[in-house]
Amino acid sequence: RCMDNYKQTILFIMIISSCAGMVCSCACSSNLKHCANIYQMPVDFQTAEQKCRDLGGQLSVQSNGSDKVVDYLIDNLIGHFWVGLHLPNEKCLSNTSTLREGEWTNLETEEAPCLPLCMSVSSDGTRTPRPCTDELDGFLCEDSQGDLCKGRAVVLDNARCTFAPCEHTCTPMKAGYKCSCKERFRTNARDPRRCDFYCATKVCEALCMRSGSACWCPAGFVRSDQNCEDVDECDSNHGCAHKCINTIGSYRCECYEPFILVNGTECTYVRSLYNGEVFTTPSPNYIARGALSTPGEYAGLIIFLVVAGFALLVLVHYLLGRKATVQKCNPSDSGEFQETVSNDNCI
């Protein structure tokens, strides 16, 4: 009984950890192609963009498919939230200019220099350009794969639970439904309708048939008798450009400063938005320390140098042998080099 309480406590901590220090909620479209989180915390645009990237997503750019998701998330909220749009630095807007439905209007070029402008959205749907340095009430972060929601999303569907969309349990919600799973299972990170067997610790009991004839372990674990043990992906070909951090059942990549994580594994250098410089991406062989980007490239370079050195030794040995043969067939006191050599003596 104590062990069950312990596991429930760990699960609770895992659920709230991704929202630590902020209030968040998540929703997906009915086809799960558009998922977004709204995070409530005071941030400027650059901080919002960085936090969203750290979470594995990008600031929301509204489209026809994601409008319903955004409208659901900002409904009944008070405040203004950053989205993923900003104007060129040379463009300025009057203080009274506002935008609706993503239309950019009333652009003015002022004589005085102006700060970069970024887009915000309010609970009434109004889009308003603001200086990117302003601290707003939060930001909208989206991810087409659904990873940000970690299976906790509300799926927006007017049919709700009518057609039993959830693998285990379906709960009707406002404008949609939410799925939940039985003990020792959790909702799939990319498809909140599915349930996956999981382990909350590095070693857990395998899921076995009553007869014991077959057992299963979750992804990222290997079976050891009746238990499942976590695999350290960082010991294998994890694909991280800089640093690999092992987690329970998986791993994550991190980058050296001042690089940021892109696409889950790549590290990209980004110059500050506020100083007017553009975003730049280094070559694959360039990292924070000015060296090769991955251990595999180090190994490749070493192998190349060894092979090249061996080939050079073979060539030198051949040339020295050839020189000795020529000297044997052509004594030093001969007047000139003999082009024709007897086959019996010199071949």
UniProtKB/TrEMBL annotation:
<dbReference type="GO" id="GO:0004888">
    <property type="term" value="F:transmembrane signaling receptor activity"/>
</dbReference>
<comment type="subunit">
    <text>Interacts with ITGAL, ITGAM and ITGB2. Interacts with thrombin/F2; this interaction switches the specificity of thrombin from a procoagulant to an anticoagulant and antifibrinolytic protease. Interacts with ANGP1 and ANGP2; these interactions significantly inhibit the generation of activated PC and TAFIa/CPB2 by the thrombin/thrombomodulin complex. Interacts with PF4; this interaction enhances generation of activated protein C. Interacts with HMGB1; this interaction inhibits HMGB1 inflammatory activity.</text>
</comment>
<protein>
    <recommendedName>
        <fullName>Thrombomodulin</fullName>
    </recommendedName>
</protein>
<dbReference type="GO" id="GO:0005509">
    <property type="term" value="F:calcium ion binding"/>
</dbReference>
<dbReference type="InterPro" id="IPR015149">
    <property type="entry name" value="Tme5_EGF-like"/>
</dbReference>
<dbReference type="GO" id="GO:0016020">
    <property type="term" value="C:membrane"/>
</dbReference>
<dbReference type="InterPro" id="IPR000152">
    <property type="entry name" value="EGF-type_Asp/Asn_hydroxyl_site"/>
</dbReference>
<dbReference type="InterPro" id="IPR051505">
    <property type="entry name" value="C-type_lectin_domain"/>
</dbReference>
<keyword id="KW-0254">Endocytosis</keyword>
<keyword id="KW-0245">EGF-like domain</keyword>
<dbReference type="InterPro" id="IPR001881">
    <property type="entry name" value="EGF-like_Ca-bd_dom"/>
</dbReference>
<keyword id="KW-0325">Glycoprotein</keyword>
<feature type="domain" description="EGF-like">
    <location>
        <begin position="230"/>
        <end position="268"/>
    </location>
</feature>
<dbReference type="GO" id="GO:0005737">
    <property type="term" value="C:cytoplasm"/>
</dbReference>
<dbReference type="Pfam" id="PF09064">
    <property type="entry name" value="EGF_Tme5"/>
</dbReference>
<feature type="transmembrane region" description="Helical">
    <location>
        <begin position="298"/>
        <end position="320"/>
    </location>
</feature>
<dbReference type="InterPro" id="IPR016186">
    <property type="entry name" value="C-type_lectin-like/link_sf"/>
</dbReference>
<keyword id="KW-0675">Receptor</keyword>
<keyword id="KW-0472">Membrane</keyword>
<comment type="function">
    <text>Endothelial cell receptor that plays a critical role in regulating several physiological processes including hemostasis, coagulation, fibrinolysis, inflammation, and angiogenesis. Acts as a cofactor for thrombin activation of protein C/PROC on the surface of vascular endothelial cells leading to initiation of the activated protein C anticoagulant pathway. Also accelerates the activation of the plasma carboxypeptidase B2/CPB2, which catalyzes removal of C-terminal basic amino acids from its substrates including kinins or anaphylatoxins leading to fibrinolysis inhibition.</text>
</comment>
<keyword id="KW-0430">Lectin</keyword>
<dbReference type="InterPro" id="IPR016187">
    <property type="entry name" value="CTDL_fold"/>
</dbReference>
<dbReference type="GO" id="GO:0030246">
    <property type="term" value="F:carbohydrate binding"/>
</dbReference>
<dbReference type="InterPro" id="IPR018097">
    <property type="entry name" value="EGF_Ca-bd_CS"/>
</dbReference>
<dbReference type="InterPro" id="IPR000742">
    <property type="entry name" value="EGF"/>
</dbReference>
<keyword id="KW-1133">Transmembrane helix</keyword>
<feature type="disulfide bond">
    <location>
        <begin position="234"/>
        <end position="244"/>
    </location>
</feature>
<feature type="signal peptide">
    <location>
        <begin position="1"/>
        <end position="25"/>
    </location>
</feature>
<dbReference type="GO" id="GO:0050772">
    <property type="term" value="P:positive regulation of axonogenesis"/>
</dbReference>
<keyword id="KW-0732">Signal</keyword>
<dbReference type="Pfam" id="PF07645">
    <property type="entry name" value="EGF_CA"/>
</dbReference>
<keyword id="KW-0812">Transmembrane</keyword>
<keyword id="KW-0677">Repeat</keyword>
<keyword id="KW-1015">Disulfide bond</keyword>
<dbReference type="GO" id="GO:0006897">
    <property type="term" value="P:endocytosis"/>
</dbReference>
<dbReference type="InterPro" id="IPR049883">
    <property type="entry name" value="NOTCH1_EGF-like"/>
</dbReference>
